[in-house]
Sequence to fold (202 residues):
Amino acid sequence: MTEGYIKFQCDWAKEEILIPDPILQSLKKERSRLYNLNLIGMYPDGIGFGNISIRTEGTLFIITGSATGQFATLNRSHYAFVSAYSFAGNSISCQGQTKASAESLTHAAVYEALPEVGAVVHVHSLWLWEKLLNHYPTTSSEIEYGTPEMAFAVKKLAAEIKDIEEKIIIMGGHREGILAFGNDLEEATTQILKIYNRSQND
Ligand SMILES: [Zn+2]
Fold:
């Protein structure tokens, strides 16, 4: 275990949440574009990967729940609302029929850094990650997934690339992990798909 490692904590209120219909439709639509390319999905060992979120108020957001990667389509019960979080404490509070994932803090980091960002997409792809690593803004390979350091590093990088056209961050210490963001979820998803298509043809 890494020295000083703070275990991720999720304070979960298992209860129904209200998701406005336009938000639900957008989540459904954009997630399927990513799911169809296996950028969101499930590994053979049953562990799901990838998550998407939409900002709802302040730096709070609705995000796909943990362990939903295996489903081709999601319904209301598969989302969680992140109602509070702490980077330093490596903790979140969430509501929903499903828990929000530890990666929620990475989403929160982007929302904190950039008020204009309305949606965040986090996908996994080994080949794309290897291709983009250190060619796009990349967090240190020393910083591991699920740590406060990752949230702080993403927040810092997101602020730095504010004015760059392509809003993409490679998570150096989170193998396969790529982040994209945009004013809305369609834009964030399109960022990933553009680079996916272009990199495939390289
Ligand atoms: Zn990940």
Notes: The radius of gyration is 15 Å.
